[in-house]
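Thread title: Can someone regenerate the structure for this chain?

I was given the following input by a collaborator and told the matching structure tokens would be attached. They weren't. Posting the sequence so someone can regenerate them.
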Amino acid sequence: MKLTNSIYGPRILNENELDLIIETAFKILENTGFIIEHSKILKQLKDFGAVVDQSGQKVFISKALIESFLEKINRKTWNEAMPQYTAESEIYNGYFLDPADNQYKPWTHELLLIYIKLSKKLSDIKGSYMLGCPIAEISQKLQPLYEKLYCWKYGIRGGEGIWDIKLCESIYRMQEIYARSVDKEIQDVFHGIVYLISPLKLGGYEAEQFWYFYERGLKVSIRSGGGTLGGTFPVTMAGALAICLAENLMIGIINYILFNITEVTYVGSISCIDMKSASFQYGRPEKSISIIAEAQIAKRLGFDYRGHSGLSDAKIPGFEAGVQKMITAMYNASVCGTGNIVAGLLGADEIFSPIQMILENELIGALNHTCKGIEVNEETLAYDTIERVGPGGNFLSSEHTAVYFNSHLWQSHIWSDQMFNGWRSAGAKNDIDFAKELYMEMLHDPKGPEIFLNEETENKLLNVIKMTV
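Best answer:
Regenerated them for you:
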């Protein structure tokens, strides 16, 4: 089916195509199977009614068992909702694109704090998320430990990395220390995540980390690793959707068995490979196609849905990055209500640009102003003002304009706001020039990001890190 618009938003699959993809996902779990390299998780699945091949560490879930599981879940009711756009900076291993000299630099403590500070200063960027702690001053092996310290200290979302079973004990001790410092239970502060690195497979390292915390009453999230069309997933979108659904079904079943979670969240992340360069790509139209289709599948099955949007392959700030990010964010907002942009992130998760973050702060502000819609009442209809101004008049000098322009007209900080001659005489600056000026102004502000961790707790956490071998 081609892309169409309906009263429920964009659709790209008809009912028969939805049925075929769902049936294929069921067949994958029933006949192809799913590798889980952990005997205790396999036993739990066997007790649930699955067929387990212990020698091959593979589990098979029959169609009847899947349908029985789906009857037990709490189905999400999808209602009409006003779309909204969000933006958050994300921090991974990669390069900081320094606006001062346009050089790609390894992360340092100082650059990380600048990036965090900027994300908190911009009005439409809702803070930061960090996975790993990529600064050059620390050992790469200890990144998951420093990640938690930085997240708690600077109020950053995330802190979910585990990476190595040898770090699990230290991670648990750090979580205990932090929980006590904020007077909460460890279950209320703990966040952990592992990924399906290969399709239809929970690898041994990830399964062992997952089970370590499960035995201590803590839930580690399992996420589909996000396949690539023609790489780890079939090159055809229909086949990729079937595998991605099979993975999300398996994750939902594991969460139901081990944690009695009766809601399923379909997390989509299908990307593609450029067949000329064999490079991973986020910013291609296939990303938007997958978002629309995945949302349809999730709604059919009563799942929640989180699309993977607002990303780019561009290596420098500008048009390519903005368009790639906005297309997926707009489609995501149209199918599930929220379109997210990962502010500042470029180069398929490898480049972190303060300039791009400032550009996207502007974009999010404009998109959300559009989503506000129109306020219609006696004051905004302005009939009395229209009557006073009369035919052939001008509203610029009216009291009504002075009272309402600030709340009804969106004001740009970096987009063009002059006609040509005024723009040229003022220096012919573009959006990137203005973004750089805002960045340099922020850079000269000596105030650092807010600290959320007291010194005693920080020292205890550092001591755990120092004792970790």
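The chain has a mean pLDDT of 95.
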